């Protein structure tokens, strides 16, 4: 299920994972909520941001001409392509935030 709002594209894969990608000339950001957690909980929430020169490096490495093209591509991504772009953005991130749910039943 896709949702387009301004410079952001949101996607939910029909099970649990969801992604939101913002692509602007000075910022690329992906927010994710993913099934599973290294702490034993239900999910992991994360946010990865690319700013500055790293945007140019990311786009070149991804063979994408611009953030506008990235948004257009993301609007048609499959669940696999969302996982791949998430991984690729992590390689060039300038800022990251991750929260892992914990299983308190132990």
Would you kindly provide a written description of the structure presented here, covering whatever features stand out?
There is one protein chain. This protein is an alpha+beta fold and 106 residues long. Helix content is 30%, strand content 42%. The radius of gyration is 14 Å and the shape is globular.
Describe the structure concisely for a colleague.
With 106 residues, the protein is of the alpha+beta class. It contains three helices and six strands. Helix content is 30%, strand content 42%.
Question: What is the CA-CA span between the terminal residues?
Answer: 35 Å
Report the major sheet.
6 strands, antiparallel
The order of strands across the largest sheet is: 1-2-3-4-5-6
Low-confidence stretches: none
Tally of helical runs: 3
Order of helices and strands: EEEEEHHHE
DSSP helix fraction = 25-40%
Coarse morphology: globular
Proportion of residues in extended strands: 35-45%
Throw out a few tags for this protein.
3 helices; alpha+beta
Write the layout of secondary structure elements.
Elements: E1 2-5, E2 8-12, E3 18-24, E4 27-35, E5 40-50, H1 53-62, H2 67-74, H3 79-92, E6 95-102
Helix pairs in contact: 1-3
